[in-house]
């Protein structure tokens, strides 16, 4: 299975709210099917962003080590792992591994142009 498909595998997401001290809560998220793939934070969106970064880095690390990650179900046909990697700031590394030029993603939008648009707030 190629890297694009491996990065498109949907993993079971576990989430729990944990009271670390009276009145102070954290969100713990994990992909229990991927070893060591977890994150926590005070804000759900930040914890999920960290978890997604760890998911991608875990899968890439396993592949680079010559090991397949767990494949509990078929990859999503509509997933775009490069888009997710760009959103997390991992696009250059992932694009190189996917064989896609980092200057232009699979959606045809040049990454530099996209970054300029984001920077201008458009």
Q: Can you walk through the features of this model?
A:
The protein is an alpha+beta fold. 41% of the residues lie in helices and 16% in strands. The protein has 5 helices and 3 strands. It has helices at residues 3-6, 44-64, 81-87, 91-98, 111-120; strands at 14-21, 24-30, 38-41. The chain has a 3-stranded antiparallel sheet. A hairpin with a 2-residue loop joins β1 and β2 (24-30). α3 packs antiparallel against α4. The termini are far apart.
Mean pLDDT: 84
First CA to last CA: what distance? 37 Å
Instruction: List segments where confidence is low: pLDDT < 50 over at least 5 consecutive residues.
Output: 103-122
Biggest β-sheet description: 3 strands, antiparallel
Order of secondary-structure elements = HEEEHHHH
Helix share bin: 40-55%
Number of helices: 5
Tell me the fraction of residues in β-strands, as a range: 15-25%
Shape: elongated
Taking strands numbered 1, 2, ... along the chain, how are they ordered across the largest sheet? Answer: 1-2-3
Number-wise, the strands total 3
How are the SSEs ordered, and which strands pair?
Layout: H1 3-6, E1 14-21, E2 24-30, E3 38-41, H2 44-64, H3 81-87, H4 91-98, H5 111-120
Antiparallel strand pairs: 1-2, 2-3
Helix pairs in contact: 3-4
Characteristics:
single chain; three-stranded antiparallel β-sheet; alpha+beta; disordered C terminus; 122 residues; 16% strand; 5 helices
């Amino acid at each position: 299975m190629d890297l694009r498909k491996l990065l498109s595998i949907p993993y079971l997401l576990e989430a729990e709210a944990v009271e670390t001290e009276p009145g102070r809560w954290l969100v713990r998220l994990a992909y229990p099917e991927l070893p060591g793939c977890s994150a926590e934070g005070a804000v759900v969106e930040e914890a999920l962003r960290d978890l997604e970064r760890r998911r991608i880095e875990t899968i890439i690390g396993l592949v680079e080590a010559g090991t397949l990650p767990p494949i509990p179900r078929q990859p999503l046909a509509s997933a775009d792992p490069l888009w997710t990697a760009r959103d997390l700031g991992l696009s250059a590394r992932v694009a190189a591994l996917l064989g896609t030029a980092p200057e232009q993603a699979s959606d045809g939008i040049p990454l530099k142009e996209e970054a300029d648009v984001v920077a201008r707030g458009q």
